[in-house]
Amino acid sequence: MPRTNTTEQLRAALTAARDIAAKADNAGRGLTPVERQTVNASLAEAERLKKSLAAGRGTDQLAELAAAEGVRSSNLMGRTFTAGSRPRTASMGGSWNEAVTAELARYGRKALVGSGSTVAPTAWDPEVHDYGAPMRFIQQVIPPGPELEGDTFTYWRQTTRTNNAAPVDKGEKKPTSVFATTKVDDQVRTIAHLSEPVPRQDLDDAQALRDFLESELRLGVLMETDAQILYGDPDATPAGFTGLAEVGGTQVQAFDTDLLTTIRKAITKVEGVGLGSATAVLLHPNDWETAELSRTSGSGEFHLQSAPVDRANARIWGVPVVSSVNVAPGAGWVGDFAGQARFYERDTVRIDWSENVYDPTYNSNEGATDFERNLIRFRAEARGNVAWLRPLAFVEFATTEAASS
User: Fold this and answer.
1) Which of 55, 88, 160, 309 has its CA 20 to 30 A from that of 6?
2) For residue 92, is pLDDT > 50?
């Protein structure tokens, strides 16, 4: 392929990714699933073209090309590459090229952000999970709602479903069915926390420390989001989500014989209302262990050997299982999470840092800013909320006899 054509194609791929990110950034939102797929495809194509050029072009030439497409760099040869605020070490070989691609791929999750910020990957996982990919978070089994332009959203929640459809003779009065709904006005909620102050020197000397802090902060936001999805706290100040356990109209399944039997009966209740099939079972790890260790009466063989529980693929009665410490022990949930729930997300997990925090108690109340002490604090936050469209499609079940009483 002529080198000029390859260069133009690389420029076009980088431009496509940048333009989509800029569009989302200007709108003050994250990337949609379709935009994210397009960005990832453009970045993959750029990576392929970059490799075909790398053998015959110097680092400076590729740096010029990347800079022309909006990728900012500082002293590329042997020092650091910086996009946003996060430093990357670059050496004389091809590692700067890899750093460019890594940074672009990271920003493909959301539009580019300014100095002092990074964007952690979105909590919503757009990948299709096959039987061999267990879910880690409850949010993963709930599809995203329509894209938000502000912080409020409205949806209709079905509260009654009485189907009276029947054969009717000519001229006879038709029966009336009752499909009562209620309009729900809600808004996204912010879930956030801070790190303790960290010496800048430690962050400069150990990139792994920064990665660790960002990972822990992001995990904390995701864990609290899961807890809010299930139990919420709409009456708190500030208010939380309306969790599944708090929304009215869900069904209940008492403990029956053993855990496997109870879960199967709960699945039947989901299917019995005619709204769809069960798409996820939520269990505390202790209760998931009980399911896995279930034995048949008489022979004492593990059920695991012959069907209901699939440990490798985290499925029970063919339904994916989310094993989470956010699920209260003794009470699990099963329902049509894919069809009858939506997660409205205004902002994915975002990581910011600052040096401007003032501590009035420092040095016997002398006071000092983090900037004066060369300290940095990180903040992680996300904005979203959950919508329960048809609560009747969800069943809470007891995992033990004691929990039923």
Assistant:
1) 88
2) no
